[in-house]
Design goal:
The protein is an alpha+beta fold. The protein folds into two domains: 30 residues; 153 residues, no CATH class. The chain is 28% helix and 37% strand. The chain contains three helices and eleven strands, in the order αβαβββββαβββββ. Strand 10 and strand 11 form a beta hairpin. The longest helix has 27 residues. The radius of gyration is 23 Å and the shape is elongated.
């Protein structure tokens, strides 16, 4: 009789240990590769044009690009500039569609790229942890190659220097949403 209890105890102990090891394996294994941001710069020798826009004009350009980008995507999202930058999109939760809101403060980096500092996240009116929502955005939303989701710093970097439209390059020099001043530089290719 004592031998049955000993076998049952050892079997149960082995089951518990293997379950703990399996859970630790799942927790320690990364879900997906995350592309890392390496800051790029623009050759400042190229001729440059300064472009000044207001928020309405910038929103029109952003929406034009997003419509084209999301043509083949099941998940649709919008990005709007007001006195803050707002990303909205729908996500599925328990077979229900819920609106996701991400509020950003845009900051121009020295390189002319944009850093979107997260002010708040919410799903409906529920505040959510930043890192998990950023992971969801980077995995599920179709983002351009020049948009990086930095999970460690919990922000998004728009690498305008990597955005290339027929060899024309862009970067930002000023973003002041409250004063409605958005200034960009356009660098044209030489000799083309």
């Amino acid at each position: 009789m004592q031998n049955k209890y000993k076998i049952a105890f050892i079997s149960l102990l082995a089951l518990v240990i293997s379950t703990v090891v399996y859970i630790l394996f799942l927790v320690m294994t990364p879900r997906e590769d995350v592309k890392t941001y390496v800051e790029s710069t623009i050759d400042m020798k190229n001729p440059s044009l300064a472009l000044k826009l207001d928020k309405i004009q910038t929103n029109e350009i952003i929406n034009y690009y997003l419509v084209e980008l999301q043509e083949e995507s099941n998940i649709k999202y919008t990005f709007v500039l007001d006195n803050f930058a707002l990303l909205t999109g729908d996500i599925k939760v328990f077979d229900q569609t819920v609106r996701l809101y991400v509020y950003f403060k845009p900051v121009v980096l020295e390189s002319g790229n944009l850093l979107l500092e997260i002010e708040s996240f919410s799903m409906g009116s529920l505040e959510l942890p930043r890192k998990e929502i950023l992971r969801y955005i980077s995995k599920e939303y179709k983002l351009p190659d020049w948009v990086y989701v930095d999970l460690n710093e919990e922000n998004i970097i728009i690498d305008l220097n990597s955005f290339d439209y027929e060899k024309i390059k862009f970067n930002a020099s000023k973003i002041d949403l409250v004063s409605d001043e958005l200034e960009f530089n356009i660098y044209l290719p030489i000799g083309n």
